[in-house]
Amino acid sequence: MASSTLTSKSFLGSSRIDGASISSDLRKLSISSVQISFRSRIPKKLQINAAGSTFGTNFRVTTFGESHGGGVGCIIDGCPPRIPLSEADMQFDLDRRRPGQSRITTPRKETDTCKISSGVSEGLTTGTPIHVFVPNTDQRGLDYSEMSVAYRPSHADATYDMKYGVRSVQGGGRSSARETIGRVAAGGVAKKILKLYAGTEILAYVSQVHKVVLPEGVVDHDSLTLDQMESNIVRCPDPEYAEKMIAAIDAVRVKGDSVGGVVTCIVRNAPRGLGSPVFDKLEAELAKAAMSLPATKGFEFGSGFAGTLLTGSEHNDEFYTDKHGRIRTRTNRSGGIQGGISNGEIINMRIAFKPTSTIGKKQHTVTRDKKETDLIARGRHDPCVVPRAVPMVEAMVALVLMDQLMAQYSQCYLLPINSELQEPLIMPRLEAANASV
């Protein structure tokens, strides 16, 4: 709280104001000092998170670093203690995200090897902040000399200058997809905990590249496996359409151009009851998380926009009781969420990614001093970001579900539950989990 002391003499010292006499009571007031207190009306939370680099409430992740700086990483705060954790738990997804995987990704060579420097002791999380760092080793800052004065069309160069009045030129700084390393590392932690203590699986795959669209129903979400998605360089579980997608990327890659696409993500065995009514609906949280990723331009949940073509009787998911006595839905056009709360069915969503902004073809733009010019961007960039976006989408979905699981446990499972309506969160004994360390 800031305070200020103003003596009344500075504005009440004269015996007349605009020719009028000051009353004797006002003259008495001038003898004393007037104490005025100012209290900030800006919520403390908004003051802390104004920079926009922190995600989550209970399971909080802050990412840091820039594309061509010393390195990137994250700080995970709120992670439960006594969870078996090592760099290998994060490295698997970091390897899926890293550049230089194939001819259809950026040729930048980075091992993206992560290092945990706090929050883990003798293979177990301590409950304190976990610091994860990944160094940048293959930097070519000179590739961005033209972009230091000319804005890349559809990139964040211009808007960063508009907001901050300064920006990191090399590689786009924080707007680079390299920032997502911190998200993917933290997502690896969240995915492990969700799998270990709730049996939850998060799987994403490429369902569209440019005009090549994987038909609805080709992929069985009940039996989909990670091996199916990882069987080809485009991460499409159907071999026939995978080849078509790779060919579409190759066709623009050799021309110095780019294409976009769609990533579909499903969640199996999500606990019931995640999410909250009104503003914090689970699909709203998932939409924010997915749309915070670089190059995202669209989000669909459940039936999505296609559901607008149906009537209510066609779209509604009718309930039934299965052989185990659990309430289920016969169809899943709701996408596993109703009223903003998970219902136990498979959660499914689709995220659209635009064509990569930085391309090798000449484009018209303007310089920082507002002069029109032509730009041929150099550097190493993905002709299609979608294959590498798969682990990024999985990570953001995992962070949301982990955050919501902790919120659900603290609000609705702290006291005895209504066993007739609520399902208990059955969690394995920590001793059994720790035995694998």
UniProtKB/TrEMBL annotation:
SUPFAM superfamilies: Chorismate synthase, AroC. GO terms for biological process: amino acid biosynthetic process; aromatic amino acid family biosynthetic process; chorismate biosynthetic process. This is Chorismate synthase. It catalyses: 5-O-(1-carboxyvinyl)-3-phosphoshikimate = chorismate + phosphate. One of its GO terms (cellular component) is cytosol. Pfam families: Chorismate_synt (PF01264). Reduced FMN (FMNH(2)). Belongs to the chorismate synthase family. Gene3D superfamilies: Chorismate synthase AroC. Its cofactor is FMNH2. Pathway: Metabolic intermediate biosynthesis; chorismate biosynthesis; chorismate from D-erythrose 4-phosphate and phosphoenolpyruvate: step 7/7. Coiled coil: none annotated. InterPro entries: Chorismate_synth, Chorismate_synth_AroC_sf, Chorismate_synthase_CS.
